[in-house]
Amino acid sequence: MSLLARGPVWVGGGALNGLRMAVVSLAVSSHVIGGNAIIAMSKSIAWLPEKITRRAPGGAMSGISDENPLSDGRRIGHTQNGNFGQSEPGQSKWVHRLTGETTYLDVGQGDEARRIAVNHRTETAGQQRPGLFWLGGYRSDMSGTKAVELDRYAEESGLACTRFDYSGHGQSGGDFMQGTISRWLKESLAVFDRFAGGPQVLVGSSMGAWIALRMLQELREAGRGNAISGLLLLAPAPDFTSVLHEPLLSDAQRRDLVEKGYFEEPTPYGPDPNVFTRALFEDGRRNLVLDGIIETGCPVHILQGMEDPDVPYSHALRLVDHLPADDVVLTLVRDGDHRLSRPQDIDLIINAVAQMTQAPAV
After folding, report:
1. Neighbouring residues of 90: CB distance < 8 A, sequence distance ≥ 6
2. Average pLDDT for residues 248-267, to the nearest whole number?
3. If you average pLDDT over every residue of the chain, what do you get?
4. 34 contacts: CB under 8 Å, gap ≥ 6
5. pTM for this one?
6. Helices within the chain (DSSP H only)
7. What are the structural domains of the chain?
């Protein structure tokens, strides 16, 4: 592995092109190189000391989604109509405790009405640091490893933290089959308006990163861009319906979308298949963000596993190419998968959060 101060940055034989002034951080296995994070810039190389803390193992999660921990070590996720995926028993023997209390917010009217489950933690009195706003992935919920660890850190640091389930996910009402990016974006903005006080760091995982980018666009268009102080994007999957899925659809899947309105796809993480609807694909085309420069007005930190089977790290590089040239950090986890939920992955996430909220890692 070599890091070049100028020109393309090479990682395991692959060039990271189009990064402009973005920063690339390389994390290897359960530790960073030599106890430090190697930061490669287009103009210089800097070594930054990194505080790494050890946490109990968080186990594995399903596909492009997080899952709920169960007391017997299995992890499972839920839709309104039942369970969607389950990992092998024994994969996770550490059960997270859910912190805070769940409240509900009604969104929409008439046939569009649905009740959204929200877990909100208020900041410690006197704190004047950004809050944390979690946006989960497709078919994941707020009791997944990363979301709970984020809330745990917020509790320890006195930060505000908001987690919630999209409609058709977790504890929220609504039909999962009606879910679209626009529908879940509307819910995200409603929760943000109701619970987020002061500037927030949006922490988006997988599809949640897409929704985070769309939220920022909507808030900036409304003259409220200063409500977002930073973006932390984990294995980001913006435009995944059009860019990552649609080109690979089989003839049978395309036929099912036309005739049935959805298709099912086997997943190695459980007995129940993933389900993708025609409405999700059609609406996704109306929410594309990789079609021009994404003006953020705030720092952006991307964490991406290089062994992610669901979202290749080339997709993260493409996202970087659409972001402003300054204040963008990309951390590539050499052996990281899509879930980024191992203890060493959680450490990287928490350290990134600490830096973006100007709080020391604990």
Report:
1. 73
2. 95
3. 78
4. none
5. 0.78
6. 145-157, 181-195, 207-221, 240, 251-259, 278-285, 313-321, 343-356
7. 68-304 (3.40.50.1820)
